[in-house]
Amino acid sequence: MSSIDEIRDGRIKKLQLLKEAKINPYKAETKRELSLKEAIESFATLESKKEEKWIAGRIMSIRGQGAIVFITLYDGTGYFQGLFKKDIIGEGKLDFFNAVADIGDFVEVLGTFFTTKRGEKTMEITDWNMLSKSLLPLPEKWHGLQDVEERFRKRYLDILMDPEVKELLEKKTKFWDTARTFMKEHGFLEVETPTLEVTTGGAEATPFKTYNEDFKLPLYLRISIGELWQKRLMAAGFPKTFEIGRAYRNEGTDANHLQEFTNLEFYWAYANYEDGMRLVEELYKKIAMDVFGKTNFETRGHKFDLAGEWKRIDYRDTIKKETGIDVLNTTYDEVKKKLEKLKIVYDGNTMERLVDTLWKHCRKQISGPVFLTGHPKLVSPLSKSMEEFPELTERFQIIIAGTEVGNGFSELNDPVDQAERFEAQQELLKAGDKEAMMPDMEFVEMLEYGMPPTCGFGFGEMLFAFLADKPIRETQFFPLMRPRNLE
Fold first, then answer.
1. Distance separating alpha carbons of residues 16 and 23, to the nearest angstrom
2. Architecture of domain 4-138 in this structure
3. Which of 10, 126, 410, 464 could form a cystine bridge with 394, CB 3.0-4.6 A?
4. What pLDDT sits at residue 1?
5. Whole-prediction pTM value?
6. Identical fold at 4-138 and 158-481?
7. Angle of helix 461-468 versus helix 163-185 axis, rounded to 10
């Protein structure tokens, strides 16, 4: 078997043959008249008319030699078979094809359409041109790229050679199309908010830092999809807004987490978390049916049906039932000892972080779908408190397969309360909690001018990964990779 270098050297020689024949091996234009999908769909008409047409694509296979050669073309819309016959195209053109063409090359071919004895739709080729000469061979069709890191590093080959990967990524695009259409049909205005922020808001996560040379100003990449900006739009008089965009969190990578990902957040004036739960349940069911054609799923060892009952469970009660800890009547040392007894690794040294870690342990057995409610104010710095239980908040999370796949609130619009909570978060930052929320006093000033009662909610591509039963990295077109020179 030839080495990659030997194969490349051979193709370089073929490239030189093209140049010697005064043929541009990397054309800027093509004579293509039909996509391969169009050729397949209109085949009956094309065959009956015997009219010559140009099609184009990448050569995925070459079979035969001498007087008859079959090729398979692929252009992203479909596959189509072409036939070279020496007595039709001419000996010179066929010999030149055999001399310079390889699997992986992009070509355009002219010909008429017919059906073979085996019933295959085929073009009888009368002319051809090179469009783009490949210098490296494609992976073997039946083996593809076996190494996971190599698959992600050469994602273009992974997608090309594995139809299931291409289908998954197309479904992900439909996932966001469905969500966008749903929001617009329900009267939400799509907006764009800053991705560079002086202070990060809307979530608790470690941000990426950057610097604005013009303003001489340290900045952060956003960790939420414009939460504090969209709330400003509520104050500005927009009744319903949403944004789909990228978020960045400088944290670990695992099956459910990446540092760069897409989320959707919406804000709905004159609505509360009860309204939000009803809308979101409808949205998730719509996504399931439109994208996956079903509501029953099995993922991460859990089974659930989005068309079934969405029960409610209580944050405080669930933790108490699983661990014996009442998060509203406990101490830092008690929670810490419980985590150590359960052999749970935790990061951070604040009460908020320890309680959150304890909850993440408890959620693992919940298949869902359920609405988690009754969150303490301690872990919900942007959520409105319940009037009857001020230490609890009007917050809800959607739990599926042991993980939160959506988070919403009746948004806090009391400027005094918000300022106090920001001050508490500031103390957490001083104590070394990297995920604590940065205070934004200009946001508090906005609240002093007044913001209507508002429901906010966010979810992201983690939901898609769960429904597809794939690690989230598999669902990204180009996940972040460490450069080879740093390995």
1. 10
2. Beta Barrel (2.40)
3. 410
4. 58
5. 0.91
6. no
7. 130
For tokens 């359920």, name the residue. Answer: 370
For strand 296-299 and strand 395-400, is the pairing parallel, antiparallel, or unpaired?
A: unpaired
pLDDT digit string (tens) for 76-87? 999 999 999 999
Domain-wise residue ranges, the chain: 4-138, 158-481
Give whichever of 31-45, 194-208, 471-485 has the largest mean pLDDT: 31-45
The domain defined by 158-481 folds into BirA Bifunctional Protein; domain 2 (3.30.930)
Kindly report which listed range (11-20, 149-158, 225-234) carries the lowest average pLDDT score. Answer: 149-158
Three-state DSSP class for 326? coil
203 has pLDDT over 80: no
What is the per-residue pLDDT for 142? Answer: 47
Q: Distance of CA 383 to CAs 87, 269, 386, 408, 452, Å? A: 77, 14, 9, 8, 14
Question: In terms of C-beta density within 10 A (0-12 exposed, 13-18 middle, 19 or more buried), how is residue 4 classed?
Answer: exposed
| 169-175 own/partner pairs: CB under 8 Å, 24+ apart | 169/475, 169/477, 171/291, 171/292, 171/464, 171/468, 172/461, 172/464, 172/468, 172/475, 174/290, 174/291, 175/287, 175/291, 175/461, 175/464
